[in-house]
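Re: [ENG-882] Designed sequences occasionally contain unexpected residues at chain ends

Forwarding the minimal case from QA. C-alpha cells:
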C-alpha cells in the first residue's frame, strides 16, 4: 500500500509539474561549446545566464508542446579551437544533440563550422562576430550574432558623420592580433580606403599592457579617432593608457566591449566611447524592459547585457523552430525552420537571409557618466 502511494505521488508530481505532455515524443538537445574559463570566460558565463533563464521558463511551463523538454549541454572550449572541435564531435556522437553552437571566440567558431557541415547538424552562432561563418556558402549555419560586417560600417558612419572625421588620416585602427580583431580591422581598412581614407593600422596581443608605441604612432600620423577591436580587459587598458598619456582620441569598438564591465574597468577614460551591439538594457522598448525586470529578479547583482539577451533569445529561436515540424523532427527540418524563422524576441524582430545571417538593425551605445546609454540605431 505504501509503495503504491509513493508511485501515485511520483506520477501526480510529474503530471502537475510538466503537464500531460510529460510522456515526450523526444527531447530537444542543444550542445553549447563556449569559454567558461580563460580570457573570454566573462562572455561565456554571461551567455550561460541567459540560456539558463530561458530554459527554466520553457521547461517550467511544460517544455515544447508535443515535442518535449529542452536540454542544454555545456562544454568549455577555453578559447582553444582544437578543444572546440573535440567537444563538438563529442556532443554530436555521444550526446546526440539536435543543434550545436561554438560561440564567442571566432577562431573556435570557424574551426567547428566544417564539423557541422560534414555532420549535417544545425550550427546556431549566438555570439561570435566573424562574418566568415556565412560568406562561404555554408549550408548548416544560422548566424544570430551581429557580425563585424554589420558593426564596422555603423562605427565608421559614427566617426565620419557624428565625430566629423573628414581627413584622410583622421581614423586609425587598433586591433587584437587574433582572428576576432584581424578580421574586423581588415573589413574596416577596406571600407575606409574605399571612402578615400588612409588609415594607419596597428595590432596588439591579448594581455599586452603597453600600447604607447601604437598610440604615439597614431598621434604622429594625425589621427583623431581610433576604431579599437579587442576584448574587454585589453580595450579598457588601451583607454586608460590614452588618458594617462594625455592623448585625445574619439574611440569606438565592437560588441565585445558593449557591456557595462568596460565602463567600470575604464573609469573616466571610457567617457564618450561608442560600441555597437544588438541589445541595451536602457532602451525604452517594452520587451527589453520586461526582460531586464525578470533578469534582475532572478539574478540580483548580475549585469544584464547583450551576451545574456542573445543567449536567452537563442533558446527561444530553437523552441520556435522546433514547433514548426513538431514531433520527430529531423536536423534538416530544424535547420530549415531556423533559417526561415520570423521571431520577435528581446532584441526585436529576428529573421535570416539566404546565407543564414541575421537581419537586425545595429544598435549603438555610448558611455556617459560611467554608464552605457542608448545612442541610436
Amino acid at each position: 500500500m505504501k509503495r503504491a502511494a509513493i508511485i501515485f505521488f511520483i506520477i501526480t508530481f510529474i503530471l502537475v509539474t510538466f503537464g500531460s505532455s510529460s510522456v515526450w515524443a523526444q527531447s530537444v538537445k542543444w550542445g553549447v561549446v563556449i569559454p567558461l574559463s580563460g580570457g573570454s570566460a566573462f562572455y561565456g558565463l554571461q551567455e550561460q545566464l541567459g540560456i539558463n533563464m530561458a530554459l527554466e521558463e520553457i521547461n517550467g511551463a511544460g517544455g515544447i508542446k508535443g515535442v518535449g523538454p529542452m536540454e542544454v549541454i555545456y562544454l568549455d572550449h577555453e578559447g582553444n579551437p582544437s578543444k572546440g572541435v573535440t567537444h563538438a564531435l563529442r556532443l554530436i556522437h555521444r550526446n546526440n544533440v539536435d543543434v550545436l553552437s561554438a560561440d564567442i571566440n571566432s577562431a573556435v567558431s570557424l574551426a567547428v563550422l566544417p564539423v557541422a557541415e560534414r555532420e549535417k547538424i544545425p550550427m546556431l552562432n549566438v555570439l561570435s562576430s566573424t562574418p566568415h561563418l556565412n560568406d562561404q556558402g555554408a549550408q548548416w549555419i544560422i548566424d544570430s550574432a551581429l557580425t563585424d560586417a554589420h558593426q564596422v560600417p555603423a562605427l565608421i558612419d559614427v566617426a565620419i558623420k557624428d565625430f566629423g572625421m573628414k581627413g584622410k588620416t583622421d581614423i586609425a585602427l587598433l586591433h587584437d592580433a587574433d582572428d576576432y580583431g584581424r578580421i574586423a580591422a581588415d573589413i574596416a581598412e577596406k571600407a575606409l580606403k574605399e571612402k578615400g581614407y588612409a588609415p594607419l593600422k596597428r595590432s596588439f596581443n591579448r594581455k599586452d599592457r603597453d600600447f604607447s608605441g601604437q598610440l604615439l604612432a597614431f598621434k604622429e600620423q594625425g589621427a583623431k579617432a581610433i576604431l579599437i577591436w579587442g576584448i574587454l580587459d585589453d580595450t579598457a587598458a588601451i583607454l586608460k593608457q590614452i588618458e594617462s598619456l594625455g592623448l585625445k582620441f574619439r574611440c569606438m569598438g565592437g560588441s565585445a566591449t558593449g557591456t557595462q564591465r568596460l565602463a567600470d574597468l575604464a573609469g573616466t577614460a571610457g567617457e564618450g566611447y561608442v560600441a555597437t551591439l544588438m541589445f541595451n538594457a536602457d532602451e525604452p522598448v517594452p520587451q527589453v524592459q520586461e526582460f531586464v525586470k525578470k533578469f534582475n529578479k532572478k539574478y540580483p547583482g548580475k549585469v544584464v547585457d547583450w551576451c545574456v539577451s542573445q543567449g536567452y533569445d537563442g533558446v527561444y529561436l530553437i523552441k520556435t523552430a522546433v514547433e514548426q515540424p513538431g514531433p520527430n523532427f529531423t536536423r534538416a527540418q530544424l535547420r530549415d525552420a531556423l533559417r526561415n524563422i520570423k521571431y520577435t524576441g528581446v532584441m526585436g524582430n529576428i529573421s535570416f537571409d539566404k546565407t543564414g545571417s541575421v537581419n537586425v538593425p545595429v544598435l549603438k551605445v555610448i558611455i556617459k557618466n560611467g554608464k552605457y546609454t542608448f545612442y541610436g540605431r
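QA comment: On inspection the terminal residues look reasonable. The chain has twelve helices and 15 strands. Proposing we downgrade this to a documentation issue.
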